[in-house]
Every structure is written in structure tokens, then in C-alpha cells.
Write a structure and sequence with these properties.
The chain is α+β, with helices and mostly antiparallel strands. The protein has five helices and twelve strands. Helix 3 packs across helix 4. The longest helix has 16 residues.
Length: 216
């Protein structure tokens, strides 16, 4: 369960591992994986940013089935009475048969609550670099406003692949005789990994890296 229990206390009551045996297997999905895996009866269930729910053999990593929801899955699946339950970004909650991977039912939910500034695209993100930078300046009232704004967005961490992409982007720019800040390179890398548009006043550096940019 996410953060250990229903209260999300972050405390796990299971026994600790005596030793860690290293990487046993690795499965590549078509998108970023934000959700935690759920283990049940020898199977691991996990959602992906590619819009699919995966059932994997917990021992080998072999795929048992995959179920398409149509939009990214960032929530952790729940399993009960032979069904896997998961929410996706298409305003739907799904029940999928744990053995066959077939849909049992689908519940349509409401659209995302509109954001305070009146702009809603469906998938709006912030990342670790933006969060650090935005909260490092300003007086307390300003920082409280920024924190409320950031809390309305989906938080995305910089992945190892994104960090490597940022390094290559900086290297190319510096080889051309230009400059590219570490923060902007990392923000660009996260946007590339999500296929997202960067909202910024500094359009030039991001456009130079081949990103879609929205100025404000």
C-alpha cells in the first residue's frame, strides 16, 4: 500500500530484508512509471505513463497480460477478490480481472478540478528542479502562494535517463560555444521524457533544445 498503510504514515510493518540480492529483472514499459507495484499471489501489478496496466510474474518479470486504459496511470493498483482496481488520467476508474486481464467494469468520474488561474490542459507537471527554484526565493507570503500553485500540479522526479539526456544537451551546447544552465537542461529533459510543453519566459534556450514552448 502507498506509504505503508491507509493513513499514509510512511511506516511499513513487514520484516526487513536480511540482505539485498541485486537486480533480478527489469521490464521496460512505453512510458514513465510513477506508481508503486502491488504484489498479490505471485503477480505484480503496475501502471505506466503509456496508459497500460501491466501484470508481471513477480519471480521472472515475464508479462502475463497488459490492459490499455487510454491515458497515463500514476496511481498504485489495488487488488481484491480477483480484481485489480486502478484509476487513469482519462477520468475513469477500472476493474480488471486479475487472471485474464479483461475489463470487468469501468466507472466514469468527473474531470479534473479547474486550476485557480483558469488554465487546464489535463496533464500539468512540476519537477524537482522547478520546485527547488520556485521555493528558494521570495518572502513568506510569496512562497505560500507558490507552494499552493505547485501542490495543484503533478510532481515528476528527474529520472536517470532524463539526467543523461540533460548532460548530452549541455555538452552539445557548450561544444557550439554557447551556454546552457544545469537547471534548464534538467527541466528540458523531464519535459522530453513526458512529451510535455515547457511554460517559461526563457523560450530561447528551450526552443534551441527542440522542445515545444509556451511563453507567458
Amino acid at each position: 500500500m502507498f506509504r505503508g498503510d491507509a493513513a499514509h504514515s510512511g511506516t511499513y510493518h513487514s520484516a526487513a530484508l536480511e540482505h539485498f540480492g541485486g537486480l533480478q529483472w527489469r521490464v521496460q514499459t512505453g512510458g514513465m512509471v510513477h506508481s508503486s507495484a502491488t504484489l498479490d499471489d505471485g503477480a505484480l501489478y503496475i501502471g505506466s505513463g503509456d496508459g497500460r496496466l501491466y501484470a508481471l510474474d513477480a519471480r521472472t518479470g515475464e508479462e502475463r497480460w497488459q490492459f490499455p486504459t487510454g491515458r497515463a496511470i500514476s496511481s498504485t493498483p489495488a487488488v481484491a477478490e480477483g480484481l485489480v482496481f486502478v484509476g487513469s488520467r482519462d477520468n475513469a476508474f477500472w476493474a480488471v480481472d486479475a487472471r485474464s486481464g479483461k475489463q470487468r467494469w469501468r466507472l466514469e468520474t468527473g474531470a479534473d478540478k479547474p486550476l485557480p488561474w483558469g488554465f487546464e490542459t489535463g496533464d500539468l507537471y512540476t519537477c524537482d528542479v522547478v520546485t527547488c527554484e520556485a521555493l528558494s526565493l521570495g518572502d513568506p507570503p510569496h512562497r505560500r502562494r507558490i507552494r499552493r500553485l505547485l501542490n495543484a500540479l503533478e510532481f515528476v522526479s528527474t529520472s536517470p535517463d532524463a539526467a543523461r539526456w540533460a548532460a548530452e544537451s549541455r555538452h552539445r551546447r557548450h561544444a557550439e560555444g554557447g551556454k546552457l544552465g544545469l537547471g534548464d537542461a534538467l527541466i528540458a529533459a523531464v519535459a522530453v521524457s513526458l512529451g510535455a510543453t515547457v511554460v517559461t519566459r526563457n523560450t530561447r534556450d528551450f526552443e534551441r533544445q527542440g522542445l515545444s514552448v509556451l511563453s507567458y
